[in-house]
Structure formats: structure tokens, C-alpha cells
Amino acid sequence: MDYSISLQKHMRMLCKTIGARPAGSAKNKAAVDYVAGVLRQCGLEVRLQEFDCMDWKNFGAVLRVDGCDVPVTASEYSLPCEIEAELCCVDSVEALQNAELTGKIAVMHGDLCKEPLMPKNFQFYNPGEHKQIIALLEEKNPAAIITAAPTKDHIIADGDFNIPCAIVSAEQLDVFKQSASRRAKLTINAERIPSKAHNVIAAYGKQSEKVCFSAHIDTKPTTPGALDNASGVSALLTFAESLSGKEFPFQIEIVLFNGEDYYSTPGEIAFMSSLSTEYRLAVNVDGIGLKNSATSVSFYSCAPEIENRIMKRVEQTTGIERIDPWPMGDHMLFASCGIPTVAITASDIFSLMGSVLHSPDDNMEKIDIDILSSTARFLESCADGWERDKDIFTKS
After folding, report:
1. Angstrom distance (rounded) from CA 98 to CA 341
2. Helix (H) or strand (E) run with residue 382 in it
3. Beta bridge partners of 259
4. What is the SS3 assignment for 385?
5. d(Cα 313, Cα 26) in Å, to the nearest integer?
6. Element of type H or E holding 305
7. Phi-psi bin for 40: left (phi > 0), alpha (psi -120 to 50), beta?
8. What's the rounded Cα separation, in Å, for the pair 241 and 287?
9. What pLDDT score was predicted for residue 169?
10. How far is CA 196 from CA 24, 131, 315, in A?
11. In this predicted structure, what is the pLDDT of residue 394?
12. Can you tell me the distance from the alpha carbon of 33 to that of 10, in angstroms, rounded to the nearest whole number?
């Protein structure tokens, strides 16, 4: 089997033919249909797990201050607006507490924009400071919010937050502070459309005990998502193509989550609502194949015997190394339930957060097909030989 040809085919389909595929969109549905078709052709039994979400449409934004246009972008999932109002700059929780914002355009910067704020109904992680800021904004009730952050991050990206939000570069902050009129006109052309999306769950074998291989299929709205996460999906599709005729002591389950890059992770919540107690191991793949980077594995809730078994495969594979656990991503769904879990990613992926990932720059030029092929072969090697090692996965 030529891994490179298969991986290139899947990557081109997801990144170029389909492109950005946020949950709820028509392109997301096209991606789901494509991967489900590939898995069925591989002989796997496929089911689609449906959930509610929204298809957010962004038709652009316009901002004028003192008669001059200022570059602006709508925050993901923002409501539309067309308003002209007084500006009020706030840079800290204390300033926010003391500000009178009703009917004004609040310009957030400084400490209020040091990191993206967790969506108000995000179930898995939500710091108290984030909750405080969101609650204060809702209490103060500005007509709209503009965030001026030093990175490309959307500070507020929340479909449950009902104050229109836009983004400018921190370099534009003086435009607001030095404005003669202290007023601005903001137009956001956007729409929230109720929609549905699906997780793809595929099974190879009929055994009750399962080993799960997972990756997320969705992207942010403006990125082809090569690293995040067409690479992981393509690796699992290629892995599925290698299964035909093989026998395992466990059912091999391939789960393609939908919604990891959606503000409320609805696909993950839907999956968790029916999580099986029969998982013996979960392997999540996200952000692999990065040029000039090793591939990493990390372990969660794993017995030493499981770690040792997989580390033997690591030592036999060039370019794969072990790193410390990192508590972000779909692997934590399994780990938090005590299921032995392995996360596979590019070792250098973390340096791309806030720059390449979630942006148009996350394209196929960032992918090394040889590294991606090596990782796909590593997945296959991890699955081989389980009939000899079944005892180490047996729950006490």
C-alpha cells in the first residue's frame, strides 16, 4: 500500500476541494459525506451521530472612526449590527467594573485581551476570570464590542453571547484613544442559521471491547485546516484502508469528531452522552505531519504495561518521540473518564497556536507527506500484534 498517494488524495480533497469546513456548514457536510464514503469502501460499518449547531455566515464588517475606515473583522459567531455610538476603551477588569457602557461601543484591550475568553457555556474548561469578564460585559450591556488584541485570536467567539463583536489589530488602538469625536460607526454583516452536523463513527469488527482511533474533521471558518486537522483525518482514513482482512481481539473504532473547533464542542458532547464502558484504549490524532518537526506521543490514564507496549513501537519508528501530557484536545474526553489514552501530534505544533493554526496559513504547504506517512504507519504498527498483548488491556 502506497501511503503517500492515499494521504495526498485525502489531504487534497479536504483542504483544497472542500476547504474550510466549520461544523454546520455545507462544506462540513461534504467532508462528512466524503470520509463516511471512504470508510464504507474500506468495509467498516459506519453510522452518523447527529447534533444541533449553527451555520455562521460572515459577509464582512465595516468600521469608521472620524470619517476614516479602520480594518475590522467580525468575531466568529457574532450577531449582526449597524450602529453609531460613543466609544469607551477598557483595559482591565477594574476598568470594566467602573465603566458605563450601555449603548456604547466598548473597545477591549490590555489585560482583557491577553487570551481568548472561553465561551460562556463551554463545559470542559472555563476559568473564573473569563466568567467574570463575560458576566460584566452582559451586565454593562454595550451596543457592540471591539477587541484589540496583539494576536490574531478571536477574544470572544461564542454563539451564546448576544452582543455583536468585532476585531481590530492592537496597532489600531490609538485610532480610538485619539479620536476627536470619540464616536464610531460599526456594521457587522453576519447571520446565525440553525443547522445540524454529524460525528462519523465507524467500526471494524464485532467485538464488544473497543480500541478507538479519533480525530476531528471540522475547522475554524477561514482555514483549510491542513494541520488542524485534515492531517489527522487523512491518517485515519489511510489507516482504515490498511485494515482489510486483518483480525484483532478488539473492535477497531474510528471516530471523526465534529465540532472541536466550534465554540461549544457539540459533537464531543453528543459522543460523551453515549460513551461506551468497553473502551480499552483511545488514540487521538491531531496536528500531525508538520514540516521539520518530530511527531510526539503522550500518555493519559495508562498503565505502565500499555505505555511500554506503545513505546516499543515509538523506539522502532524514526521521528517519533515522547512528550509530557498536554490538557487540550479531544484526547481529554477519554482520559477524563479514566480510559487509557494516547495523544499524537507534531512536537512543534504548540508554537503555531495564535499564528498559523485557525488561519488561512494552515495549508498544505505546512505538511511533509513523508512525516505524515510515517505517522500513519506508526498507527498501523500500534494495532498489529494485539492478539499477543490482550492481557495488558484487560480491566481489573
Report:
1. 46
2. helix 369-383
3. none
4. coil
5. 39
6. helix 304-315
7. alpha
8. 20
9. 95
10. 5, 28, 43
11. 59
12. 13
Residues written for the chain: 396
pLDDT tens-digit series, residues 101-143:
999 999 999 999 999 999 998 888 889 999 999 999 999 999 9
CA-atom Rg of the chain in angstroms: 23
Q: Which residue in 168, 199, 228 sits closest to 349, CA to CA?
A: 228
What secondary structure, in 3-state letters, does 134-172 show?
HHHHHHHCCCEEEEEECCCCCCCCCCCCCCCEEEEEHHH
Which cell is 176 given?
480610538
What does the pLDDT read at residue 18?
99
Task: List the domains of the chain with CATH numbers.
Answer: 3-55+195-393 (3.40.630.10), 67-179 (3.50.30.30)
Low-confidence residues of the chain, pLDDT below 50?
A: 396
- CA 183/CA 390 separation, integer angstroms: 68
CA distance 322 to 302: 14
Question: What are the cell numbers at 365?
Answer: 504547504
The per-residue pLDDT for range 353-372, each reduced to its tens digit, is 767 888 999 999 999 999 99
| pLDDT attached to residue 212 | 95
Which residues contact residue 374 at a Cβ distance below 8 angstroms, ignoring those fewer than 6 apart? 295, 317, 318, 319, 320
CA–CA separation, 47 and 190 (whole Å)? 33
Nearest to 302 by CA among 268, 328, 276, 334: 334
Which pLDDT score, from 0 to 100, does residue 28 have? Answer: 99
Element containing residue 284 per DSSP (H, E): strand 279-285
Which sign does the torsion angle of CA 219, 225, 231, 237 carry? Answer: positive
CA atoms within 13 A on the CB side of 175: 21
